[in-house]
């Protein structure tokens, strides 16, 4: 894109609505560095990160994105100091309490990727309430990765598929890419078209490993707490310039 600074409205007008990515996935990274740069404790970065979650969920839903996947807490994040983990769980509860009514009014359906049984009781209960409240909604599906790991998801899927084979629900010959996909947390949703990772890191960090086989990646140095609607629009405009061949020519 040329160097001119566009406004949000101008960027929205530039986007081709007929070629929107159906599914956008985001690795929300850089909260800790955002806080450190300001000599603040890391949880201040996560708190500001939550404000961006609110902004980006609203922007994606208004734009007409059908599936948005956010990586909020990985299976590896349990290695962090206890006060940071507790802070993140508190922010998750706060997010649901503050946003659930609005998400529900906006027809957003919340789907969880990951095993929430390991979450503290209060967080688990609030997450279950959010899923139950929005389960019949037909608008944007908001996938939230909580205690989520791509490898863990694949192994869980394999275990569940083997159980179904053992019980005679399916036969080994029935297993193809589509059957296997239905055993993942994203179930019958399309794969991400666009994966965004802010904060300057150029890696996947165990996010949606099976689903991103043909996903377009968009990396940026912006830290997640500084990631606004404008950056989402810029990433979509870049995506619309890509030539996706899916292995063909
Ligand atoms: C990675 O940044 C971010 C996380 C591990 C947590 C993401 C959580 C939020 C944005 C909070 C709100 C989420 C929801 C769904 C309500 P980092 O801490 O690894 O940053 P660093 O690499 O700069 O240390």
Uncertain spans: none
Taking all residues together, what is the mean pLDDT?
A: 97
CATH class: Alpha Beta
Give the helix proportion (percent range).
40-55%
The main β sheet shows up as: 6 strands, parallel
Total number of distinct structural domains: 1
Number of strands: 6
Give the names of the bound compounds.
Answer: farnesyl diphosphate
Spatial ordering of strands, largest sheet: 3-4-2-1-5-6
Give your account of this protein's structure.
This protein is α/β, with parallel strands linked by helices and 249 residues long. The chain has a single domain, classed as Decaprenyl diphosphate synthase-like (Undecaprenyl pyrophosphate synthetase, 3-Layer(aba) Sandwich). The protein contains eight helices and six strands. The protein has helices at 8-14, 31-37, 42-63, 82-105, 121-134, 150-166, 177-181, 229-239, and strands at residues 23-27, 67-74, 109-113, 141-148, 194-197, 216-219. It has a six-stranded parallel beta sheet with strand order 3-4-2-1-5-6, with helices on both faces. Helix 5 (121-134) links the parallel strand 3 and strand 4. It is globular. The structure holds farnesyl diphosphate. Residues 28-33, 46, 49-50, 53, 70, 72, 77, 88, 91-92, 95, 144, 199, 224 line the site of farnesyl diphosphate (FPP).
């Amino acid at each position: 894109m040329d160097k001119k600074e566009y406004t949000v409205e101008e960027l929205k007008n530039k986007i081709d609505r007929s070629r929107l990515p159906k599914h956008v996935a985001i690795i929300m990274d850089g909260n800790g560095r955002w806080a450190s740069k300001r000599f603040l404790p890391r949880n201040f970065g996560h708190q500001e990160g939550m404000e961006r979650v609110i902004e980006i969920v609203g922007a994606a839903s208004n734009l007409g994105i059908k599936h948005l996947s956010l990586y909020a807490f990985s299976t590896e994040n349990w290695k962090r100091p206890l006060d940071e983990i507790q802070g993140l769980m508190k922010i998750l509860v706060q997010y649901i309490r503050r946003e659930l009514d609005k998400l529900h009014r906006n027809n957003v359906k919340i789907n969880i990727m990951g095993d929430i049984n390991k979450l503290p009781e209060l967080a688990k209960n609030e997450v279950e309430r959010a899923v139950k409240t929005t389960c019949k909604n037909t608008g944007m599906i908001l996938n939230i990765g909580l205690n989520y790991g791509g490898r863990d998801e694949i192994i869980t899927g394999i275990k569940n598929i083997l159980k179904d084979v053992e019980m005679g629900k399916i036969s080994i010959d029935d297993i193809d890419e589509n059957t296997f996909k239905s055993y993942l947390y994203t179930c019958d949703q399309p794969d991400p078209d666009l994966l965004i990772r802010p904060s300057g890191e150029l890696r996947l960090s165990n996010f949606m490993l099976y689903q991103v086989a043909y996903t377009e990646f968009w990396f940026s140095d912006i830290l997640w707490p500084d990631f606004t609607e404008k950056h989402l629009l810029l990433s979509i405009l870049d995506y619309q310039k890509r030539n996706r061949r899916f292995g063909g020519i």
